[in-house]
Amino acid sequence: NAGVTQTPKFQVLKTGQSMTLQCAQDMNHEYMSWYRQDPGMGLRLIHYSVGAGITDQGEVPNGYNVSRSTTEDFPLRLLSAAPSQTSVYFCASSYQKQGGTEAFFGQGTRLTVV
Amino acid sequence: AQSVTQPDIHITVSEGASLELRCNYSYGATPYLFWYVQSPGQGLQLLLKYFSGDTLVQGIKGFEAEFKRSQSSFNLRKPSVHWSDAAEYFCAVGAKSSNTGKLIFGQGTTLQVKP
Predict the structure, then answer these.
(1) Distance from the A107 Cα atom to the nearest Cα atom in chain B, whole angstroms
(2) Nearest-CA distance from A108 to chain B in Å?
(3) Which chain B residues are Cβ-neighbours of A45 within 8 angstroms?
(4) Which of B51, B56, B52, B40 is nearest to B110 (CA)?
(5) 3-class DSSP state for residue A105?
(6) For a Cys staple, A100 with which of A34, A65, B39, B51, CB 3.0–4.6 Å?
């Protein structure tokens, strides 16, 4: 019963490097999202997807790309890492149920950019 | 603008005492509401949710929350706090009409429990 799986759990990057944070869900949920968590700011939405092939920007999309080629996977790409992207990243998948949608979160990826 | 405010950044309570964490939201659409808990270095665990119906909702670990539309609030309560409740708590809101799964989170409240 894996749920939402994020890899890696920890990563250190040098400024200017690129990388992809992986997110996979095995619940056949249609909605997936990426958030970043910074002290005192809660979680802020980076990008989200409402289905395979459909993505859109959230509150803080700059410096990040996403794609959704399958229902299961929703990778987040950092194009050229900057120290301001040091954060904890959470992936979530959601499904529509009566009255609203319920989100399930991965364990997070702690990224440090030096 | 849509927003969620948790007015208390840090709260310290004694073990066995009651707890109330505040959450206020500003949202144009009909909201659905959540409380999540995060232990250090861990992901987010859902405590409880409100979609519709009874405005007093029960969650896991003995928590409850009350939705008050007139006050735009969704405060979290627990009658007797345990040391294991020390964690960070997040209130979140989503729109029933959006069909996107997007959530807006508050800034979080860190709960410390004194023995």
Answers:
(1) 4
(2) 6
(3) 102-104
(4) B40
(5) strand
(6) B51
A102 is written with which tokens?
């319920």
CA atoms within 13 A on the CB side of A99: 12
**Chain A residues within an 8 Å CB radius of B52:** 99
* pLDDT per position as a tens digit, B47-98: 999 988 889 999 999 999 999 999 999 999 999 999 999 999 999 998 776 7
Q: What residue ranges of chain A have pLDDT lower than 70?
A: 1, 99
pLDDT range class, residue B40, cuts 50, 70, 90: confident
Q: Kindly state the tokens that stand for A77.
A: 């790409």
The length of chain A in residues reads: 114
Which residue from B21, B27, B28 is spatially nearest to B6, judged by alpha carbons? Answer: B21
**pLDDT, tens only, A75-96:** 999 999 999 999 999 999 998 8
* Number of other residues whose CB lies within 10 A of the CB of residue A82: 14
Cα–chain-centroid distance for residue A77?
9
Task: State the Cα–Cα distance between residues A53 and A102, nearest whole angstrom.
Answer: 21
Residue B35: closest CA among B10, B72, B64, B15: B64
* Residue carrying structure tokens 């790309």: A65
pLDDT of residue A2: 74
Backbone φ and ψ for B20, nearest 5 degrees, come out as: -140, 125
